[in-house]
């Protein structure tokens, strides 16, 4: 089956800028240029909450991993933390000196990273609500910043046409990816933490390996890409573009699977639910849409295979056809599986989760080792320089 439109939320009075599902999938948060934050109930006939507090456009929203808080960033230069209940109380963080474009919780829910037009990325503690530090090497607006799944790295995307990778502990920029031909609107980590995807005004989506810092995939579209989200399996990527479409890319095959037409005008934001069975999108048309993914459950079985191979995406350059893509379907892999009993499936799921966790830990180790290797290389280079300089000094003295 193709992805299908499931729900349609109307209530914002201006362009929607950002959407996010609560972890339990019962609620959906959206931010808009109308300065409001809306919390929609996924259950039919339940009323939505409209949270008022920001003095200007809300640029970004995100649920905390526990679902007890929603963070929002605004053109009024503040970050707010809301309790998504009837009261809708919020606390205000002030440290940025310009529009806040992006908010993101670390996976343990302890930290928050924000990105702003003041050219900085800032990190905060959630519970003590304290500003911790700034990362400031971008030379233009920073549109997006995300923690890696293990919380050790931060990635940021900017109008200076770079994507920067930061070490959270040392607060240093480890690498700058400069291959974008335009501003970088959005960036996110692959669930494995081994690669990142970035969307740009040059109509491209690029996927990089953050261990080798090399370009793995390059998708050329025909409109500015505003937002993207990885499917939890790591095998698919959904994008939202100015040509009003959402596109689903198959990262294993390196091709476009679906083009979805729902919004009138630019599609501004898109996100998968934590389970991957739904995704939500928002647009300049003031609408929030929820889509059923309808991927075969069997496709989720690929998760482990890809996580095992470390990098699940091969190095290739892809050009997307824009018109012919609607007929492309997912490979159906329902064979004799349908008769299996639930117990077996549950056992397999918990085994899969355990394996995934172990693989995650291994990935962390791999990353640490690669960072150590990089540092060693740097030290060796420095040593070599020192020795060469010494030789020169000795030679000069001798002559």
Q: How is this fold's topology laid out?
A:
Elements: E1 4-10, E2 16-21, E3 27-32, E4 36-41, E5 49-52, E6 58-63, E7 70-74, E8 78-82, E9 90-94, E10 100-105, E11 111-116, E12 121-125, E13 130-135, E14 142-147, E15 153-158, E16 163-167, E17 172-177, E18 184-189, E19 195-200, E20 204-209, E21 214-220, E22 225-230, E23 236-241, E24 245-250, E25 255-261, E26 267-272, E27 278-283, E28 287-292, H1 302-308, E29 316-319, H2 342-398
Parallel strand pairs: 21-29
Antiparallel strand pairs: 1-28, 2-3, 3-4, 4-5, 6-7, 7-8, 8-9, 10-11, 11-12, 12-13, 14-15, 15-16, 16-17, 18-19, 19-20, 20-21, 22-23, 23-24, 24-25, 26-27, 27-28
Helix pairs in contact: 1-2
Pfam families: WD40
GO cellular component, one term: ciliary basal body
WD repeats: 9-50, 51-82, 93-134, 135-176, 177-218, 225-259, 260-292
């Amino acid at each position: 089956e193709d992805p299908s439109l499931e729900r349609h939320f109307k209530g914002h009075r201006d362009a929607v800028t950002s959407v996010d599902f609560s972890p339990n999938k019962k609620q959906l948060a959206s931010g808009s240029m109308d300065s409001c934050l809306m919390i929609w109930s996924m259950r039919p006939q339940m009323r939505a909450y409209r949270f008022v507090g920001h003095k200007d456009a809300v640029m970004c929203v995100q649920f905390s991993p526990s679902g007890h808080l929603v963070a929002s960033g605004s053109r009024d230069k503040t970050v707010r933390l809301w309790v998504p209940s009837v009261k809708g109380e919020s606390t205000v963080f002030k440290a940025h000196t310009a529009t806040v474009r992006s908010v993101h919780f670390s996976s343990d829910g302890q930290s928050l990273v924000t990105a702003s037009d003041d050219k900085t990325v800032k990190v905060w503690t959630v519970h003590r609500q304290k500003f911790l530090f700034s990362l400031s090497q971008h030379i233009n607006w920073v549109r997006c910043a995300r923690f890696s799944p293990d919380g050790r790295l931060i990635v940021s995307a900017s109008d200076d046409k770079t994507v920067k990778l930061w070490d959270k502990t040392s607060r240093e920029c480890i690498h700058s990816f400069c291959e974008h031909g335009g501003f970088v609107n959005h960036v996110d980590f692959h669930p494995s933490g081994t690669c990142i995807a970035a969307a740009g005004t040059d109509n491209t989506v690029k996927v990089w390996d953050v261990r080798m810092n090399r370009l793995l995939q390059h998708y050329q579209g025909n409109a500015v890409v505003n937002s993207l989200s990885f499917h939890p399996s790591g095998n698919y990527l959904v994008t939202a573009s100015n040509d009003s479409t959402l596109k689903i890319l198959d990262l294993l095959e390196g091709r476009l699977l679906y083009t979805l037409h729902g919004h009138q005008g630019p599609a501004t934001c898109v996100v998968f639910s934590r389970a991957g069975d739904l995704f939500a999108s928002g647009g300049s048309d003031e609408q929030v849409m929820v889509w059923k993914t309808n991927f075969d459950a069997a496709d989720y079985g690929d998760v482990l295979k890809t996580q095992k191979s470390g990098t699940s995406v091969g190095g290739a350059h892809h050009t997307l056809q824009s018109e012919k893509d609607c007929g492309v379907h997912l490979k159906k892999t329902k064979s004799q599986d349908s008769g299996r009993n639930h117990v077996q499936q549950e056992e397999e799921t918990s085994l899969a989760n355990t394996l995934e966790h172990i693989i995650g830990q291994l990935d962390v180790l791999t990353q640490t080792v690669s960072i150590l290797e990089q540092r060693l290389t740097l030290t060796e280079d420095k040593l070599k320089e020192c020795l060469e300089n010494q030789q020169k000094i000795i030679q000069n003295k001798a002559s």
